[in-house]
């Protein structure tokens, strides 16, 4: 860790709330991206869950919007150390999307428009812990924040909440995603500060 | 040969304002190994809680012993540039590492013609080349096209006027995009192919071209230069991205 | 088109922690489209948990670099080869 720069303060802070270790609070919503923002026409948008035996379950944009929606209000924690509290989203619970899916797989690899991937245990997508969301704070999800739809898995670091989500591949084995394969922690629990492989 | 890079502690020894929102920082860096014009440094800031962030800044001038100069433009909501232009005071320490970058550099021993095209604060590494040329008493023919919003946004204005007058072989054209000073005939507009033709070198002279500025500016100028017949292998570019803060 | 990237010059510092040659002056070949160009001309997305450098021809990821407090991870599976200029032996 470097020397302290006299008078340097990160922008905006609030010391009264409990945050995961090493995190600081932000009021704005930083945009992180590992590539260009994909342009996804809604009439071509599709969301696909593929089981470990190759069975596919698909939803078009209209079909997704017809499903019963939830409005989770959650705290989000980015591995680059900002946290944002009380964010409200609207979307479909993964429990609902997984209802008809026949699987005994233990792992999920999330695929996105633009090529990004992230991996997590399937159980972390179930029991009210994850959503495919298409609204943020009452407005349609902006492209730079993952619109038309992104995954929301707020109990893990936010790189797991993949932007521009396209589908989920269910697998019997665990396969590291984009950041997990190049030094980031395979699971990423912010409360245990699992930032890097080996943490 | 370079050694592997490490963070060093520099001390701010002087500042002067270039514009209302940009200032030049003079930093003393014990053991500074010297650098080539066009190279940059990474600057790292850390707060009391251990939050740390870093940015790259171009070196603005040849080194004077252990003393180096950076010119920093304040960027809206840019926590690093706001600190460096407003808070950072003479005597304060700061961490930096460098010099780095071996591609966007001009070697003062080169004699081929040079075309420099700057957009806004992209002038900084190109000014380092102009200053290094003078310091080395180089006779390499230089042409600088400096695209800038208005006279009050210009960096190094009086020095560039003086250098253009006194240094044989250096031509400077300042191209305004929003408002022009009185007496300037060219109406304010973005840099175009006609400007590159009028104020640059013809491709037959085979100049080395250095283009620095915001991403859109650099793409446009580099494409225009290729369109005019300049060999893409002689065009070197440096783009300021979203992390310019 | 959004221009939310820097160029490969921004990799000079992070890579100089690992290598004594300047990798930004090296010429790389893209696995995906075969585009050949300087590392300095790659499109670098640095507003991310690491540095992601993409091919200016096809946007394929050519290089990824992650820096933790005590290690660096470098991934070059998108780069078929790197030609590094060296002084004459």
TrEMBL record, chain A:
Q: Where is the Oxidoreductase molybdopterin-binding domain?
A: 35-179
Query: Which intervals of the chain are annotated as region Disordered?
Result: 1-20
The protein's matches in CDD domains, at most eight in alphabetical order, are given as: arch_bact_SO_family_Moco (cd02109)
**InterPro entries noted in UniProt:** OxRdtase_Mopterin-bd_dom, OxRdtase_Mopterin-bd_sf
Q: Which PANTHER family match?
A: OXIDOREDUCTASE MOLYBDOPTERIN-BINDING DOMAIN-CONTAINING PROTEIN, PROTEIN-METHIONINE-SULFOXIDE REDUCTASE
Its protein name is: Sulfite oxidase-like oxidoreductase
Automatic annotation (TrEMBL), chain C:
Q: Which InterPro entries match?
A: DUF6510
At the top level, the lineage of the source is Bacteria
Write the protein's name: Hydrogenase maturation nickel metallochaperone HypA
Q: What is the lineage of its organism?
A: Bacteria, Bacillati, Actinomycetota, Actinomycetes, Jiangellales
């Amino acid at each position: 860790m470097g020397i302290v720069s006299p008078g340097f303060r990160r922008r905006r802070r609030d010391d009264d709330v409990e945050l995961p270790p090493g995190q600081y609070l932000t009021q704005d919503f930083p945009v992180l991206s590992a590539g260009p923002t994909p342009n996804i026409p809604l009439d071509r948008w599709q969301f696909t869950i593929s089981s470990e035996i190759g069975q596919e379950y698909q939803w078009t944009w209209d079909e997704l919007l017809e499903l019963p929606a939830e409005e989770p209000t959650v705290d989000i924690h980015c591995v680059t150390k900002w946290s944002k509290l009380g964010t409200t989203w609207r979307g479909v619970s993964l429990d609902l999307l997984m209802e008809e899916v026949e699987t005994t797989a233990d792992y999920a690899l999330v695929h996105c428009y633009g090529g990004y991937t992230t991996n997590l245990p399937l159980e972390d997508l179930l029991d009210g812990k994850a959503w495919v969301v298409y609204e943020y704070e009452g407005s349609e999800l902006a492209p730079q924040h993952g619109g038309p739809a992104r995954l929301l898995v707020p109990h893990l670091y936010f790189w797991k909440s993949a932007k521009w989500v396209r589908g989920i591949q269910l697998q019997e084995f665990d396969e590291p995603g984009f950041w997990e394969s190049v030094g980031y922690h395979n699971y990423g629990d912010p409360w245990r500060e699992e930032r890097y492989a080996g943490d | 040969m370079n050694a592997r890079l490490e963070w060093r502690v520099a001390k701010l020894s002087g500042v002067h304002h270039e514009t209302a929102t940009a200032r030049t920082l003079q930093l003393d860096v014990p053991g500074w190994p010297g650098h080539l014009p066009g190279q940059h440094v990474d600057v790292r800031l850390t707060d009391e809680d251990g939050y740390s962030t870093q940015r790259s800044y171009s070196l603005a001038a040849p080194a004077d012993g252990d003393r180096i100069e950076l010119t920093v433009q304040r960027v809206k909501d840019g926590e690093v540039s706001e600190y460096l232009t407003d808070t950072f005071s003479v005597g304060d320490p700061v961490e930096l590492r460098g010099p780095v970058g071996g591609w966007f550099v001009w070697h003062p021993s080169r004699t081929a013609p040079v075309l420099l095209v700057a957009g806004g604060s992209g002038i900084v590494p190109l000014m380092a080349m102009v200053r290094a040329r003078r310091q080395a008493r180089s006779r390499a023919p230089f042409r600088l096209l400096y695209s800038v919003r208005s006279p009050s946004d210009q960096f190094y204005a009086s020095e560039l006027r003086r250098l253009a007058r006194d240094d044989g072989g250096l031509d400077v054209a300042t191209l305004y995009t929003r408002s022009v000073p009185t007496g300037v005939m060219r109406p304010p507009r973005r840099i175009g192919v006609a400007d590159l033709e009028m104020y640059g070198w013809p491709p037959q002279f085979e100049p080395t071209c250095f283009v620095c500025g915001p991403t859109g500016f650099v793409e446009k100028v580099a494409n225009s230069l290729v369109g005019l017949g300049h060999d893409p292998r002689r065009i070197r570019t440096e783009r300021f991205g979203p992390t310019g803060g | 088109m959004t221009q939310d990237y820097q160029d490969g010059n921004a990799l000079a510092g992070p890579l100089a922690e690992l290598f004594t040659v300047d990798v930004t002056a090296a010429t790389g070949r893209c696995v995906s489209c075969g585009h050949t160009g300087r590392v300095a001309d790659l499109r670098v997305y640095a507003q991310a948990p690491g540095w992601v450098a993409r091919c200016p021809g096809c946007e394929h990821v050519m290089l990824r670099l992650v820096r933790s407090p005590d290690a660096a991870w470098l991934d070059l599976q998108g780069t078929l080869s790197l030609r590094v200029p060296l002084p004459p032996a």
